[in-house]
Design a protein that fits this description.
four-stranded antiparallel sheet, 14% helix
Length: 292
């Protein structure tokens, strides 16, 4: 499988955070709409495609580790309040183990737009039914990047679909002009280093025999069906995952870790991306992990 790095230029507001499993789901949906069965047996075979979250260009998440791991060598203890505000770290500093160099990266604004339902017959709010509601808006004012791990045989198809998603819109209210972006392929910056410590860059199911230990925050994915499958019950089974920035110790070095499960209801099987691309990184002082 080939690891690609895509530089993303947002062209509009986003209604949905660009998480890797969400982007993966949209890519797969395009394949099925085009009557392409590439992912028909995704549950029962080695993954052909793994997609990361979109993150600020040049940066990745701060790894989800105990705060003592972020101390400078001569510090007695880390400023915990300050460190919790630092959400990102440059990819280079992460891989070298310079965890104390996490940064506060301002790349997105979130706000709420107030809207109201309209009666399509009278084209008014109908007085008694006046019920304004808020819609979350996300504005990315810096370039982003994402990584995809893909089989050579489908690489061009996947890149074409990602281009279509950027053109027609991603996520919630994509048909209203949200979630538009351009992208270009750039040189891969993830270095292959000899270390058992790896970080996830998308929500992951940590059901993997290659994982020895892990540190993570839980993340629940509430999936929904679309198109014809949404007529009777639109909701899939809630799935508990490990959020992006989870750290795992692997027995053997590998490009990815995690697993895929069927999160569909009885008569409507489904699947979600439970894998993550691995970012190997060094930990200079392993005593902060409190493991042997």
């Amino acid at each position: 499988m080939e690891l690609l790095t895509l530089k993303i230029k947002p062209l509009s507001h986003f209604g949905t955070l660009p998480k890797g499993d969400t982007i993966f789901g949209q890519i797969v949906a395009y394949f099925f709409l085009n009557r392409d069965n590439t992912f028909e047996n995704y549950l029962n075979e080695k993954p052909k495609l793994i997609v990361s979250d979109m993150m600020p260009y040049g940066y990745v998440y701060k790894p989800n580790l105990p705060l003592d791991c972020f101390k400078i060598d001569d510090e007695k203890e880390v400023d915990k309040k300050d460190m919790r505000k630092r959400k990102f770290i440059s990819l280079e500093n992460l891989q070298k183990g310079n965890l104390h160099l996490c940064e506060k990266v301002d790349f997105m604004d979130e706000f709420v737009t107030i809207k109201n339902s309209i009666n399509r017959i009278t084209f008014t709010t109908d007085g008694d039914d006046f019920a304004p509601y808020g819609v979350d808006e996300k504005v990315f004012f810096k370039e982003l990047w994402m990584f995809i791990l893909v089989e050579d045989s489908i690489k061009e198809k996947v890149l074409t679909v990602i281009s279509q998603i950027g053109k027609y819109g991603f996520g919630k209210d994509g048909n209203l002009g949200k979630g538009n972006f351009d992208f270009e392929a750039v040189e891969n910056s993830i270095k292959d280093i000899d270390t058992p410590y790896n970080m996830s860059i998308s929500p992951t199911i940590l059901k993997d025999k290659n994982i020895v230990n892990s540190w993570y925050e839980p993340f629940t994915r509430f999936g929904k069906y679309g198109l014809n499958n949404a007529h009777t019950n639109a909701f899939k089974k809630p799935t508990l995952m490990a959020d992006s920035a989870s750290v795992v110790v692997l027995k053997q070095s590998k490009q990815f870790f995690g697993n895929c499960i069927n999160n569909g209801v009885v008569d409507k099987p489904s699947f979600l991306q439970g894998y993550s691309i691995s970012i190997p990184f060094a930990i200079k002082d392993k005593s902060c992990l409190n493991i042997n």
